[in-house]
Amino acid sequence: MSTITVKEEPVQITELAFNNINFKIGRLDNKLLYKMYDFALVGDDYTKTSADSLVCLATQSSVERLDSMAQVAVKWDGPISLAVFVVGNEEFTILQYYVTYLRLCFINIRNNVTFHIAVPRGHEPDPESTKLIDMHKGFNCQQPEQTLRRLLKTRSIETMRWRIRNNYPQNHMRNFARKGCQTKFVFLTDVDIVPSDNIVPLLNLFLRNEYCTNRCAYVIPTFEIDFRVKFPSSKKELLRLYRKGLARPFHEKVFIYNQYATNFSRWFSNTETEETVHISHNVTNFEFLYEPFFVAVDDAPAHDERFMGYGFTRNSQVYEMYVAGFSFFVLSPIFTCHWGLQQKKSRPVWREQQNNLNRKRFETFKNEIFARYKISPSRKIK
Length: 382
Hints:
ten-stranded mixed sheet; four-stranded mixed sheet; 382 residues; alpha/beta; 12 helices; single chain
C-alpha cells in the first residue's frame, strides 16, 4: 500500500488505477506498430457529462506532460477523452500512481476524464512483474508538477534511451483521443493547451444555435503566456498582458505561420460582448502550415499517421480540411493558452531533424490529397 495526502489527510491506496487491463490483447494500429486500449479507465460521470454536452475535449499526452491535466480539467468542466502513450513496465507504473493521485486530488479528473492507453508493440506492460514505487512521503495535492517529476525519476536509462531513439506518434494519439469522445462536436488539443474560464457552457450555448452544418471548423485563438503571470480570466485581461509583452500568439517567435491566419489583431479589435460566444471573423487568408486548434463536428479528416514526431502533424490535417472545402471561423471571446514564451533557440536539434523528415513526407501526402479531392497539382493553394 502507498499513501497519498488528500486535503492534508493521508489516504491509504489499496488499488491503483488500470489494475484490470489485460495487455495481452488490444487492437493494433494500421501499421501494426502500436497496441491501443480504448476506455482503459472511464470517468465516474463521463457518460452523463457526454450526454449533457455538445462538445468533448480530446487530448493526448506522454507520461511526462500529464501534470497539465490538473489545470486543464479545472478549466474544462465537461467530458475529456485523454489518450496516453506509455512504454513498458516503468512508465505504466508511473501512469498508475499518477492517475490515482490525479483522481483522488482533482474531482473534475475523477468525474470527467476517460483515459485510453497506447503502447509500442513489443513493449506491452506486464502488471504482474511491475515494481511498486516507494512514495513513503506521500503526495501533495497542491503540487501536481513536482509529484510527477518525482515519479519520472524512477525510469531507467534504458527507457529514456528508447524514448530518444523513437518518435512520439502524435497523430496516432490525436486520432485515438478523438474517437473516445461521445459528443457531436470535438475540440482536439494538445495536453498543455489550457482553455479559458467557463468555456464549456459558453461553447454549448453557441453550438446549439450554430448556423453552419457542413464542413465548418470553429477556431479558438491560442496564446503563449509568461510563467510569471496569472492565467488570464477574460479576453480583456489577456489583451492587457498582450500589450505588456507578457502574452503573444502561440508560436509567434518560433514559427509565425503556425497561427498567423487566425488574424489576432482583428480578434482583439472585436469588442462585442464577452457574455456569449460569437464568430469574430472568418479565416480569409488561409496559409500553408496553418495549425489552429478548433471545434468541429467529428467528420473532419483523420490525422495522417505517417507523420511521426514533430513537424507537419496537425498541419497535414488542417491542410486536407482546407482542400476538402472546410470553412474556418474564429470565435470570441474564448481562447486557450500555453505556458511559457517560446524561443526558437531553445528547440533541441532532434526536433528539427524530425521536422525535416516530415517535410519530405508532406510532398507525397499533398499529391495524394490533390488526387483524392480531384484537384489539379497545378492549382495554387496558399
